[in-house]
Amino acid sequence: MDLTSTFEALSALPAQDLTFWQDFFLKFYRAFLEADRWQQYIQGVGTTLLVTAMALVLGIVLGILVAMIRTAHDQQRPGHKNPVLFILNLICKIYVTVIRGTPMMVQLLIMAMLIFANSRNFTMVGTLTLGINSGAYVAEIIRGGLMSVDKGQMEAGRSLGLNYFQTMRFIIIPQAIKAILPALGNEFIVLLKDTSLITVIGGKELLYAARGVMNRTYEQMFPLLGTAAIYLVLVMIFTWLLGILERRLRQGDRR
After folding, report:
1. How far apart are CA 159 and CA 233, in angstroms?
2. Within 10 A of 68 (CB to CB), how many other CB atoms are there?
3. Which of 54, 89, 135, 180 has the fewest CB atoms within 10 Å, i.e. is most exposed?
4. How far apart are CA 10 and CA 6, in angstroms?
């Protein structure tokens, strides 16, 4: 007897006559196999990975821009203060303070219900919000890494005739990357898990797919446990890949 026939036979029985494992099978079948519902989870994973990648790119771009401005401002020589850089640094500090000081959920609701109230593309609104949120944290990670490099490295680069940006590109940033990579990896993992929040505003990612299954089967356990297991597997895979990258960087240092 195949799974479908078993399911149909068990479904015809009264609930009180089912054993624990028969009830377990019925709920599992309804959550993942009936009407090919597993495809909804696959689609949700694809959307989750796409949202994560797009938000990560936006966060890194914003983070690098903000970190460079704030680092350039902090590393100005005494008596040589640039007023334009002062204004840009103030804007960046406000951005970082506001984003890091308010909950992600509140930011999502503000973006969906106020700023983009007329938009129906909730997934893209969520992606944009995640990217802006991640940018503030990435900026502080990168800024911390840049500021951790000894100040003598900047002075050495300038003494060789390199301008500020050339010194940052060829001397400071290559040294800072090794220090910031683990923190950036952790931020990426947090961003991956935070994609589940966009279902609150109607974003169609993995948790949204699970909620759709729950609404049709009136069963919460397996869709939620399945979603948690999928997130866990994704995090473990990316943690493993980050570990490989870190080991290669350490091997490069020894050489």
Report:
1. 50
2. 20
3. 54
4. 6
List the structure tokens of 250.
Answer: 């350490």
Count Cβ neighbours within 10 Å for each residue of 134-164 and write b for 16 or more, e otherwise: bbbbbbbbbbebbeebeeeebeebeeeebeb
The tokens describing 18, both together, are: 């089912």
pLDDT tens digits, residue range 94-152?
A: 999 999 999 999 999 999 999 999 988 999 999 999 999 999 999 999 988 888 887 77
Joined together, the tokens standing for residue 146 give 């840049």
Average pLDDT of the segment spanning 10-39: 84
Contact yes or no for 154/76 (Cβ under 8 A): no
165 is written with which tokens? 């940006």
- 10 Å CB burial of residue 197 (0-12, 13-18, 19+) is buried
Give burial (CB, 10 Å; 0-12/13-18/19+) of 242: middle
Q: What is the pTM of this model?
A: 0.86
Segment holding 156, helix H or strand E: helix 151-159
Helix, strand, or coil (residue 118): coil
N-to-C CA span, the chain: 61
pLDDT tens, residue by residue, 39-94: 999 999 999 999 999 999 999 999 999 998 998 888 777 777 788 889 999 999 99
Distance between CA atoms of residues 101 and 88, nearest Å: 20
Continuous segment of H or E residues that includes residue 234: helix 221-254
Tell me the CA distances in angstroms from 204 to 1, 76, 117, 180, 201, one per residue in order: 36, 46, 17, 32, 9
